[in-house]
Inverse folding.
């Protein structure tokens, strides 16, 4: 038996850090939404008691470090499953980009294996299991649009933002999430106005959404990686309605209403940035 599952990327419309916690993590408040840039996961039931990963991408591990492996392992252990699975990941989301690709693969495996192994778990239960794998996994289990607090696992559902184009560009640099959080100076940051962003989403006010995009981690990533700042400036120059870095970066995205401007931004960036994508905002929860 075989099952195909879609694993969409997320972007941060806001990302705020409230304080540093005792467990060495930072307390977050962020608005996240899904976009139509997705990995495709194929799950094939095996009679042998093994988890096999076909990652098909040299930057993605094929062993127990893969978050999709960890999702299958959690379910096998918790529910004493003796069957195995072959997980094939067609990677379309850029890796280590601030788009939660690995977390989304894990979430897609939780949703898919719930069906394949007939576990009948509720989405909330899958999200709870996902939180053991990574803090962005619970959001990815639901998809859609949400306010995320804690390390990202405390979720409040929000409506989908008005539909628009999202142009993404990932410069060819690696940015360590740990480095970004450790360099963050909480006295220096300008906090985004999360409440105004949420109001703007409820009012379906595209302009206010663009005006209130904000990510405190930009203060670090833009300082150490000027190419990220340059992409932001180029996107604005080419006519983006709103521009922001997602997560800890280095991907930068532009929100844009008009298709002609989407093409202008896409073509303008394609010349000097290898990984550029133009997709639609999704924002709706994933189907069960
Ligand atoms: C920035 C965000 C926003 O969604 O996403 P991405 O850029 O990965 O998409 C996340 O907070 C990425 O969280 P997560 O995926 O858990 O980060 P990890 O790689 O586990 O964290 C590496 C290190 O960063 C620091 N860290 C991480 C998360 C957090 N809320 N506070 C922290 O201080 C910790 O020191 C941790 O050991
Ligand atoms: N299924 C997966 N897809 C991508 N990366 C994965 C996966 N499983 C584990 N990883 C590891 O997680 C790291 C972070 O990947 P990713 O989830 O793409 O980025 P981010 O945390 O920036 O959103 C990668 O460098 C990779 O080694």
């Amino acid at each position: 038996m075989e099952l195909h599952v879609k694993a969409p990327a997320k972007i941060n419309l806001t990302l705020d850090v409230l304080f540093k916690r005792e467990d060495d993590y930072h307390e977050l408040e962020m608005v996240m939404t899904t976009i139509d840039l997705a990995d495709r996961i194929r799950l094939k039931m095996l009679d042998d008691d093994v988890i096999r990963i076909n990652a098909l991408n040299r930057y993605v591990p094929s062993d127990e470090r893969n978050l999709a492996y960890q999702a299958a392992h959690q379910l096998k252990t918790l529910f004493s499953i003796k069957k195995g699975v072959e997980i094939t990941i067609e990677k379309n989301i850029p890796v280590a980009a601030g788009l939660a690709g690995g977390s989304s693969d894990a979430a897609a495996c939780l949703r898919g294996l719930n069906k394949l192994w007939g576990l009948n778990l509720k989405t909330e239960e899958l999200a709870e299991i996902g939180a053991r794998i990574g803090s962005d996994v619970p959001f990815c289990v639901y998809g859609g649009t949400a306010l995320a607090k804690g390390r990202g696992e405390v979720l409040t559902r929000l409506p989908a933002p008005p539909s628009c184009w999202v142009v993404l560009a990932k410069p060819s640099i690696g940015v360590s999430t740990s480095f970004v959080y450790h360099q963050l100076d909480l006295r220096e940051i300008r906090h985004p106005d999360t409440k105004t962003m949420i109001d703007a989403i409820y009012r379906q006010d595209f302009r206010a959404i663009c005006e209130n995009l904000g990510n405190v981690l930009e203060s670090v990533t833009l300082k150490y990686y000027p190419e990220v700042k340059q992409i932001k400036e180029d996107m604005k120059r080419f006519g983006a309605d709103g521009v922001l870095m997602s997560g800890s970066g280095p991907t930068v995205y532009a929100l844009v209403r008009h298709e002609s401007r989407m093409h202008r931004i896409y073509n303008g960036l394609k010349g000097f940035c290898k990984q550029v994508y133009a997709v639609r905002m999704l924002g709706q929860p994933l189907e069960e």
The chain has a mean pLDDT of 96. Residues 60-61, 65-68, 89, 95-103, 105, 247 surround adenosine-5'-diphosphate (ligand 2) (CB under 6 Å). The first strand starts at residue 2 and ends at 20.
